[in-house]
Design brief:
Blueprint (H helix, E strand, L loop, with lengths): L2 H10 L7 E2 L10 H6 L7 E2 L7 H19 L3 E5 L3 H12 L3 E5 L11 H12 L2 E4 L2 H9 L7 E3 L3 H14 L9 E4 L4 H4 L2 H14 L4 E5 L2 H10 L7 E3 L4 H10 L2 E4 L2 H10 L3 E3 L8 H4 L3 E3 L4 H12 L16 H11 L1
Parallel strand pairs: 1-2, 3-4, 4-5, 5-6, 7-8, 7-10, 8-9, 10-11, 11-12
Length: 338
């Protein structure tokens, strides 16, 4: 989602590119179909690391990526977001003295219990070019001692992809109720704690008779629901969806309930109310300007915010600056000018 706009813009400028897929995300609906919908070329290299502990996965990526970098001798390696692949690639390249550009730099939740926060901190300290999506990213980096000349505020590449595929999503709707809540859950803090997961799902079951609930279930979450023996038969459970189909569900939802960072951004752009099941966010601009409300682990707060939506009193937000579909072009222009 984040690489596609940058790749398209670099291709238009004649840049030679190598696309490396680490294989960290390998479910067909969470990987392969995205390449098709985003009109991306097949990866030049697939490291096929698969799942594993944080240490094992990071180590496998590093060991398999290093020979690729040594062989290809790139001028710069772009890494995206905050997953293990991001930090692992930045470590490999910095030790080989290859310049690293971090797309979506500077985001902070200030919660080091989140593995993504560690990945963000490590990557930004190693990166030579830091491409931020919003003003708070710049401020975070400068506070951490990053030289201002390394920081480039370019906007949000996720929104580039959303704008590109929005027309297709607007034509995609079938079998959904007139009003519904769209739910996604995948963070360990929500799904690995049986009591916490049960409380969330019981709250959703409570409102089911007033607002339909559509729940595309992440493989990790489905596994936990089965392990904890939670009855979710009252909810509309479906599998992970390709991006266009999921975007269509967001577009037409009365409210989105999530713990995903990217979905907080997408709902803000779409002006759809978003209730985030976290006590913090690395995307505070979605709260300050957008439609996002943090409800934490408080079931009563979740219900009260849902009732506000049902009563027509949902938060109304605005689209942050530079979320205009041209972030990939700005990044490509900076890279070409190097």
């Amino acid at each position: 989602m984040k690489a596609a706009p940058v790749m398209h813009a670099l291709r238009e400028r004649g840049a030679e590119q190598t696309l490396v897929h680490t294989g960290q995300h390998y479910d067909a609906n969470m990987s392969d179909v995205f390449f098709t919908q985003l009109a991306m070329p097949a990866p030049d290299v697939n490291l096929e690391v698969g799942s594993g502990t944080h240490a094992a996965q990071t180590a496998d990526i590093m060991a398999r990526l290093e020979p690729v970098v040594l062989e290809r001798k790139p001028d710069v390696v772009l890494v995206y977001g905050d997953v293990n692949s991001t930090a692992a690639a930045a470590l490999v390249c910095s030790k080989l003295l290859v310049r690293v550009g971090h797309v979506e730099a500077g985001l902070r939740s200030f919660d080091r219990t989140m593995p993504e926060e560690i990945n963000r901190l490590v990557t930004d300290q190693l990166a030579d070019l830091l491409f931020t999506p919003s003003e708070d990213g710049d401020a975070n980096l400068q506070r951490e001692g990053i030289a201002p000349e390394k920081i480039h505020r370019v906007g949000n590449v996720m929104i580039d992809s959303l704008i590109q595929l929005l027309p297709a999503a607007q034509q995609t709707r079938s079998g959904t109720p007139e009003r519904y809540a769209l739910v996604t859950l995948h963070r360990p803090s929500n799904v690995d704690d049986g009591d916490r997961l049960r409380n969330i799902l019981e709250t959703l079951l409570e409102i089911q008779n007033r607002l339909g609930v559509i729940f595309p279930v992440h493989p990790r979450t489905r596994q936990r629901i089965a392990e904890f023996g939670i009855d979710v038969s009252g909810l509309q459970i479906i599998g992970p969806l390709p991006y266009i189909e999921f975007l269509a569900l967001q577009l037409h939802a009365s409210v989105v309930i999530t713990d995903s960072g990217g979905i907080q951004e997408e709902t803000t752009y779409l002006r759809v109310p978003c209730l985030t099941l976290r006590s913090n966010t690395e995307r505070p601009v979605t709260v300050a300007l957008g439609t996002n409300v943090l409800v934490g682990s408080d079931s009563a707060r979740l219900k009260s915010e849902l009732f506000k939506v049902l009563a027509g009193n949902a938060k109304v937000g605005s689209i942050p600056p530079l979320w205009d579909g041209r972030a990939g072009e700005r990044i490509a222009e900076i890279l070409v000018n190097l």
